[in-house]
Each structure stands twice: as C-alpha cells, then as structure tokens.
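Aim 2 progress update. The chain analyzed this quarter is reproduced below.
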Amino acid sequence: VKYRRYRIQGGTYFFTVTLQDRKSDYLTRYIRQLGAAIRHVKILHPFTTIAMVVLPDHLHAMWELPDDDDNYSLRWRC
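Predicted structure tokens:
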C-alpha cells in the first residue's frame, strides 16, 4: 500500500494504529504500559497529545509536533 504522508513542521496529525491480530485486546489489557511508553517517548521526543482513543485492537491519536519538527514516524517507532 502506498500512503501519502505529508510532513509539516509543527503540524497536527491524526493516526489510526492497529494491532496485527485484530482479535487481540492487548491495548486495553496493557493500557498502563501503553501510557508509560507514550510518556517516555514524550520525554525523548516532545509532542502534544490533542486527543487519544484506545480500543482493544486499535487506537486513534491526534498529535501536535513542535514547531521545528515533523518526524512523527520516529515517535511511533520509539
């Protein structure tokens, strides 16, 4: 699949991230660990969470990046 990925420094981005196993409930089962991981990434690579919805097998997130940064991929990899 070819995605269009626009990169705008300081931009606000909307993401949908799914687990490979769509029958899994790992995101809600391990919600505390997910939250800890996101907080840790924010320390290393700051961003603002505008909104986030976590469901058992996928999540939706809206992030705003710093004015001089457009590297949302790095944050997801971390």
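Residues 39 and 72 are 15 Å apart (CA to CA). Strands lie at 12-18, 48-54, 58-64. These observations will guide the mutagenesis experiments scheduled for the next reporting period.
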